[in-house]
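As the next step, I selected for study a record pairing a protein sequence with its backbone structure tokens, which the following lines show:
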Amino acid sequence: MPLRAWYRKQSEIRKSLRKTYIHRLVGDRLFSQVLWKIDKRSMAGGMALGLFIAFTPTIPFQMLLAACGAIYWRVNLPVAVAACWITNPVTAVPIYMAAMQMGKLIVTHLPVIGDILNAYTPNNGASRAIRSALNLWVGSLLFSSAAAIGAQIVIRSLWNLIRKLVHKVSTSKDNPDVYGVDGYEQ
């Protein structure tokens, strides 16, 4: 979808949200131009926020958390909400299993955390559930942080690269040494 068509669709979504329950609940902050504009900071921040939330085990509330976070940190709202869809019912199990294994690896190899867990938790079902939840959250936060940092770097780098290419193309078309009168390369 071309960028202008996407932006036109986003403005239609903004108009349809007026006078809804969400508008009454959040207010005019929902319609702030910062949440809907397309620039490097807003897009990179929205993607980073959405990916950070996507890799945390908060599946039923991810879109709500992303929307609230986008309003609070003033990043692109549609990008933040859409980035949460990486973890869906098909991809959630493998992602969270990998996060749990990574968390278990980190927790068991750090002697301080292992000693605290062994000293203060009995060996019963509740403590195993607490250890599993700790492993899942440690791994998920590691994956979330890596995804958010990676998204910031990739989006900002691509944005700069595209701007340089557009600038290079626009300046080379203005150069009569490279292009002839009809606009084709000589």
